[in-house]
Amino acid sequence: MVTDPSNIKRALRAELRERRRTRTSVERASATEGFTRNLQKLVTDSGASFISCYLSATHEPNTREFLNWAQANGIRTLFPIAREDGLLDWTQGDGESEAEGLFGMPEPVGEILGPMIINDVDLIIVPAAAVDASGVRLGWGRGYFDKTLGSMQKCPPVYALIFDDELLESVPREIHDQPVDGVVTPTQIHTF
Predict the structure, then answer these.
(1) CATH top-level class for 5-191?
(2) Is 154 annotated as a binding residue?
């Protein structure tokens, strides 16, 4: 059925993935500067000293320069490690040492700290395909972050990292989808 949210999500993800894949190197470089500047501002303004962030893959919003800044400024950073059971483990890292994880995504190398350590962070930065005007996050379809965020008793602020054209009027939502508190784009920090 065409109106099934999972089918609509699948089609939207394909469109967004293609849009990311075709961005030019100049667009990516400019976006990276904006992402880095706005992530630094978010962390500084929130007073966060312990954050969770992901290692960006090739076509994702680039987190690498921000992670270098965080490391240089003493911001402790947790990185997600995908498990085969659909949950996330975590490790602390420098944002440089990495290996290929499940699904071919970059993951940090480090001591596994287990899934509960995420409860200690001050701020969570998550990947997203898109986010809508009410904070509904469209992930990439595996549900890792939705499960993690949905299981937290006291969740700190959660911000998704997206390109400006991925902040949409609406995205399909299913019962398991967890909203975010805001987005960081190359040009803005938007809190819902």
Answers:
(1) alpha beta
(2) no
* pLDDT 10s digits, 128-147: 999 999 999 888 766 678 78
pLDDT at 64 over 50: yes
pLDDT at residue 97 above 80?
no
147 is in an annotated binding site: no
- The answer to the question of whether 87 is labelled as a binding residue is no
SS3 of 151, please? helix
The domain ranges of the chain are 5-191
Q: Is the pTM of this model over 0.85?
A: yes
- Asked whether residue 100 is marked as a ligand-binding residue, the answer is no
Contact status, residue 111 vs residue 91, Cβ threshold 8 Å: yes
Structural tokens at position 133: 């005007």
Helix axes 25-46, 64-72, angle to 10 degrees: 30
Count CA atoms closer than 13 A to 68's CA, side-chain side: 9
Does the annotation list 12 as a binding residue?
Answer: yes
What's the CA gap between 177 and 162, in Å, rounded? 17
| Residue 1 confidence (pLDDT) | 47
Q: Is 41 annotated as a binding residue?
A: no
